[in-house]
Amino acid sequence: VGDGRRQAERLLARHRADTGSLPESIAMVLWGTDNLKSEGGPLAQALALMGAAPRFDTYGRLAGAQLIPLAELGRPPIDVVITLSGIFRYLLPMQIRLLAEACHLAAAADEPEDQNFIRKHALAFMAEHGGDIETASLRVFGNAEGAYGANVNHLVDAGCWDQQDELGNAFTQRKGFAYGRDGHPTRNAALLHSALANVTLTYQNLDSVELGVTSIDTYFDTLGGISRAVLQAKHARDGDAACAPPVYIGDQTQGEGVVRSLTEQVALETRSRMLNPKWHESMLQHGYEGVRQIEAHLTNTMGWSATTGQVQPWVYQQLAQTFMLDPAMRERLAQLNPTASAKLAHRLLEASRRQFWQP
């Protein structure tokens, strides 16, 4: 709980440093495996942002949530829109109810709207759509029972999308099921769109030294997907005045942790892995699979461009120079894995065609 509180303040401090303001709403991705490995760190962070804490019974067992008084919290509770992985849904059902209860308690609290952003947005939804505070306070979303993922990664990998809105639509269709205090999901597209339109920033924790946001496609499938869905919801509400939300990554792999922008995180991983001879030469020692891993990193990088637009063009330029425009390297890749090496070239061409970079 203490670590989650520190992580929450670190994220708020980074956003204040970038914008000078406190975010009213944060879209946060929670994975089951990450919470298990970190003993609930991201879960505790979400509760801390909402101004809530776990509540235990007299036997020390988790019994629900409780609000932290405003005087003690020192800021308004942040409206946190949570999307869950399928593994979280099945492994941590009590924690889903805990999060839903925290959202409801904050929305129902007798506090001024300018001092409680969860209540502010819940009352605004009720004024526009009707209903009760129970429904308006739902902020925990995920897949239908038995379903996993947002399918954004499959669309990007296959290249079978024309408009970026298709990626956001895939996310909201798959993740549009709201979990209440009973732990059961019900589809509520109107509430999800309303909640996403209020989001100030999107965020996910990174707690593995082995995997980065360009290593596997699940990161841009979830965090990238919700970032795209937020922009679409803002466009629907505000028109051309809508701006893409900043995307932040909380790196918990060293020391006290650090919060980076997505642009900074992708640049760091590109320099330390893909462009680092120690890394890509080690990959090539694995032959066929090593080339496939290099191609996968490029595809995942393009996934971030497709969903957020926050990858700098130099990334593609330097990857092209390293792997495709060097005749010796190009021949090595083709000999080791002709299929993946051709896909690497086609992915760079696709990124150029989609105007993520210009050679």
Number of helices: 18
Question: How many strands appear in the DSSP assignment?
Answer: 10
Could you tell me how far the N terminus lies from the C terminus, measured between alpha carbons in angstroms?
Answer: 48 Å
Widest sheet, order of strands: 7-6-5-4-1-8-9-10
- Estimate percent helicity: 55-70%
- C-alpha Rg, in Å? 21 Å
| Major sheet summary line | 8 strands, mixed
What's the rounded overall pLDDT mean?
95
- Low-confidence segments, ≥5 residues, pLDDT <50? none
Taken in chain order, the helices and strands follow as HEHHEEHEHHHHEHHEEHEHEEHHHHHH
The 3D shape can be described as: globular
> DSSP strand (E) fraction?
5-15%
Structural class based on helices, strands and sheet pairing: alpha/beta
Q: Care to describe what's here?
A:
- By secondary structure, the chain is α/β, with parallel strands linked by helices.
- Helices cover 56% and strands 13% of the residues.
- The protein has 18 helices and 10 strands.
- The protein has helices at 2-19, 32-37, 41-49, 70-73, 86-91, 93-108, 117-129, 133-136, 152-158, 165-174, 189-197, 218-238, 262-274, 277-284, 288-308, 313-323, 327-336, 338-353, and strands at residues 25-30, 52-56, 62-67, 79-84, 140-142, 177-179, 185-187, 201-206, 247-251, 258-261.
- An 8-stranded mixed β-sheet has the order 7-6-5-4-1-8-9-10, with helices on both faces. A two-stranded antiparallel ribbon has the order 2-3.
- A hairpin with a 6-residue loop joins strand 9 (247-251) and strand 10 (258-261).
- Helix 12 (218-238) packs parallel to helix 15.
